[in-house]
């Protein structure tokens, strides 16, 4: 797999590398810090990138014009916007312009990997409402109250566990974070799968990412030393 990461911040590009290796340990990751560099990387190399991660604010982008230029070169390859700003209008406009997904830079690493896997499977990834900026033109108070079906059937604890699952955490890690027994996590997950119509962990993550469900805040993993 060949992945092009186009972002003008080297810290961001370097920070994405370990997570992209989870998609393919042998992936060739190509950097670009401007639109011109991204285009040169596409035109001057073979094979073409299998996946492009694109920052809308880097030099030369001129908003969605840059995305359109990239898509004209790679009409059949997924281009995913990775941005520090994610108003609902920006997300919708990017998808309408051909983006296969829109990932806020505030998303966790494991959740980003799950989102990219969804994109590589041929789906479109949109962030949940929890990642939209309050400057959203619809107004911060216009978000619907309550979770969308079937997530409105989840208990608070089930929602917390599903959020941890999306972050890629194991049952043991989730149990440690929530101060529960591992068997309790398994029971809750069975209920989650039944309520949202998932057959397994991967399908539960896929359904949650596609739904626009407002993912609850995820606590960090606390690991003991020694």
UniProtKB/TrEMBL annotation:
InterPro entries: CheY-like_superfamily (IPR011006), NreC/VraR/RcsB-like_REC (IPR058245), Sig_transdc_resp-reg_C-effctor (IPR016032), Sig_transdc_resp-reg_receiver (IPR001789), Tscrpt_reg_LuxR_C (IPR000792), WalR-like (IPR039420). CDD domains: LuxR_C_like, REC_NarL-like. Residues 147-212 form the HTH luxR-type domain. Keywords: DNA-binding, Phosphoprotein. The keyword Kinase does not apply. Residues 2-120 form the Response regulatory domain. It comes from the Bacteria. The modification 4-aspartylphosphate is found at residue 55. The keyword Glycoprotein does not apply. PANTHER family: TRANSCRIPTIONAL REGULATORY PROTEIN DESR, TWO-COMPONENT RESPONSE REGULATOR. It comes from Phaeospirillum tilakii. This is Response regulator.
């Amino acid at each position: 797999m060949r992945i092009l990461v186009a972002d003008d911040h080297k810290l961001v590009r370097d920070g994405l590398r370990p997570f992209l290796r989870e998609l393919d340990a042998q992936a060739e990751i190509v950097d670009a810090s401007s639109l011109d560099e991204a285009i040169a990387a596409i035109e001057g190399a073979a094979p073409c990138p299998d996946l492009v991660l694109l920052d809308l604010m880097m030099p030369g982008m001129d908003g969605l014009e840059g995305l359109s230029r990239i898509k004209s070169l790679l009409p059949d390859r997924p281009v995913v916007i990775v941005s520090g700003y994610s108003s609902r209008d920006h997300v919708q406009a990017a998808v309408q312009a051909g983006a296969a997904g829109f990932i806020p830079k505030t998303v966790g690493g494991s959740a980003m990997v799950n989102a990219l896997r969804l994109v590589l499977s041929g789906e479109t990834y949109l962030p949940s409402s929890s990642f939209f900026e309050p400057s959203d033109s619809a107004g911060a108070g216009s978000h619907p109250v309550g979770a969308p079906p079937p997530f409105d059937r989840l208990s608070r604890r089930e929602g917390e566990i599903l959020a941890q699952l999306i972050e890629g955490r194991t049952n043991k890690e989730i149990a440690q974070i929530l101060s529960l027994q591992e068997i309790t996590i398994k029971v809750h997950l069975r209920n989650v799968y039944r309520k949202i119509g998932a057959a397994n962990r991967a399908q539960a993550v896929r359904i949650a990412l596609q739904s626009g469900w407002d993912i609850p805040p995820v606590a960090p993993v606390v690991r003991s030393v020694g």
